[in-house]
Amino acid sequence: MSQAKSYQIVWSAGRFPFERPSGIPDTGQTQCYDNEKEIPCPNPGENFYGQDASYNINSQSFTKLDAQGNELPDSANEWTIVRDNITGLIWEVKTDDGSIHDKDNTYEWHDIETVFIKTLNDQQFAGVSDWRMPTIKELDSIADYGKYNPAIDSRFFPSTKFEDESLYWSSTSWAGYIAVNAWAYSFRYGGLDIENKDLSHYVRAVRGGQQAIFPECVDNGDSTVTDLNTGLMWQQATNSEMNWENAIKYCENLSLADFSDWRLPSRKELRSIVNYNKYSPSIDTVFFPETMPNRYLSSTSSHHFADAALGIHFSQGSNDANKDSSDYIFVRAVRGGQNRLLGHLFIGSPQQSSTWQPGNSMPIKWLTQNISGNVSISISREGGKADTFVSIANNTPNDGEFEWTVPNTPSVNCMLKVVPVNAPEKGTTQGLFTILPPQPSNLSFEQTELTLHHMVQTMYTVSDPDSKKLTIVAFSSDPMLVPDTSINLGNGSNNYPIDLTPGEPVSLSLTCYQADKNYGQAIITVEVYDENSLSTTQQITVSVTPFHSLTCENCEITQTMGMVSAGGEHYLALKPDRTVVAWGVNEYGQLGTGDTKKE
């Protein structure tokens, strides 16, 4: 058994790891082709096996929703929005009623946010106010390459414009001239165009977690790269140029990094590694350093022109089409995803590209196909290499469900296997998905700069993604101003062990008491330690003011008389009018909220 790799995964600031799409939707192409025409789909080992229709990974799936987001049957005649069940995105449905949603409305690119999107959000279309323009990759995700005029499932997306010159704006600017041009999409055949932003085109609004504009990759150190956004593993190097038929054979027969299940990517998969923020080449060359700013082949054929294979030009991420046997084009292989086969088990959870914290309860779910007996469940943290699967359950009923607590074994190349004990040939695998390293606690303060008038208080929130117990400790940079013992984390102490539910925030109060008549500035440091010995630190600044400046609003204190004891600690000050101001802490550890005056 080979040694498992360790990875350091750093998430972009403000990004919550679970907000990920669950893989690249299938192109929808079910027809098979040779170099010239449609043919019966070949079997494994036959010529042209390995093209797009040879694989059924993340089949397109949509659900009609009403204006309140309630699910409707596919047969519903009226619906307001559509959910893509693969990406989780929610799409606007176009109408023919003259409204803001009318299919004939067009906009210049610069006006879309301020006119169209703002109107949807101001009106809280479908009960929400987070509608936006789609990226070019998101528009491509709902295209159906098995259709033409329009290249989209009109059962769910009616009134889609597809005639010549019918284009839909994306939010993606062209990296070659960001200020002037942006990408637009044609649903006539699934085409892309670079358009001047002053032109008027159609728009379809979307909402939901935005799919990544560029990949989030990990170099596996074995000539492969894993894209965490999609759960796909890529051949890192660019292979020699070859024609379409030979490219299919090459990928099907490729043995790389101890994997033998490589394939030629579909056009949607190939587009997923395009970085539309880059130009010539339009890819992250840190992870794909040998990529040529040229044409790359995909496994997808043109539905309208059978002699054309659809590819991507990596000078700028534009479309390309060519299947000429004498035309040699660059190739990059891919692997990952669950190929859905008739009669085989099918894993519904975890999903491809999903992300899990140690300690999470992972619901493993699969379609049983009514196969009798038990199943074995196992996981590989090395992408599914032979002899790397570790048992989760050796013999559990084939009832379609199993709860598993995710261990502290991080990897970006996890693959799950479920196999019927009595029919192992009908098993299946799902991947790639990620188990994160233990993550530190999250700690945030309502205020980070405070003024201490004898006492000051602020609220703070603490949470942890994978621990049930935390220890919170606070200490002061200047005990003469704020002693450690005068810091209350919410339990009357500066040391607070708490129980919590992983992922659920807890709100607490931090209170500081002034030590004496000294004044100045102190830094309060709060540290949180979790069960994995990870720590998080935050600091707040406390400006301690003199006592006499705080005991009376409209008068000048002439003398501070010191501390007296009266069921607690109180300070007295003499005012010019001969009245006395008192303040302090009572026997319950509470500070008075106002001046106490006595003649």
TrEMBL record:
<dbReference type="Pfam" id="PF07603">
    <property type="entry name" value="Lcl_C"/>
</dbReference>
<dbReference type="InterPro" id="IPR011460">
    <property type="entry name" value="Lcl_C"/>
</dbReference>
<feature type="domain" description="Lcl C-terminal">
    <location>
        <begin position="224"/>
        <end position="335"/>
    </location>
</feature>
<protein>
    <recommendedName>
        <fullName>Lcl C-terminal domain-containing protein</fullName>
    </recommendedName>
</protein>
<dbReference type="Pfam" id="PF13540">
    <property type="entry name" value="RCC1_2"/>
</dbReference>
<dbReference type="InterPro" id="IPR009091">
    <property type="entry name" value="RCC1/BLIP-II"/>
</dbReference>
<feature type="domain" description="Lcl C-terminal">
    <location>
        <begin position="81"/>
        <end position="207"/>
    </location>
</feature>
